[in-house]
Request: fold
Amino acid sequence: MDKNDDAAGSAGKRGLWARLAPVIFGLGGVGFIAGVLFWGGFNWSLELTNTEEFCISCHEMRENVYKEYRNTVHYSNRTGVRATCPDCHVPKEWGYKMIRKIQASNELWHKVLGTIDTPEKFNAKRLELAKNEWRRMTRTDSRECRNCHHFEAFDYGEQGRRGANLHQQGLSEGKTCIDCHKGIAHALPPIEQGVGVDKHGATQQEFHPPAKAGTSGETGPAPVLQQR
Reply:
């Protein structure tokens, strides 16, 4: 009887598996396809927000910073290479990009509040907005700038004398792009220069940070470039 019971139990298990296997594999296949479709839709939506058209779809950007940007070398230049809004303001690496997207959700809230929905409101906030972006780019070592520009790729012989000297000096002082290139794509906020009335603007230290601790801070070419 025991052998018969064991045989019957084994047959029952095989029969149960035979009935369940198609269901399990079917559900797994459906789940896989659903996952692919979800990921594709999510990634498509994410990339849609990484276009200039999306960035200027709200009038706050279109009527303010976009107009300024169109008069800069990043918009029109002799090589025809254009850096658009997401090229400068959205990381390319997926992890950093997701962090930036989460941070940007705060901008949707201020869109609802109408925080900068007129030129007057925008200009009143210009200094605060500029400082926020300067801090972000300093913290990331101007990561988005370096998607296109690299110290080690510079041909200093093709640069003007002043630019070549300052680039090499900046490298020797451990500076990052945004330390010297504020206002490269947008109008600057007021800058305090120690003359006249208080402009309630950025300080000289904020506008031109000093050399980083541990660097020479000397003028002239960086030691690594003296062989050029």
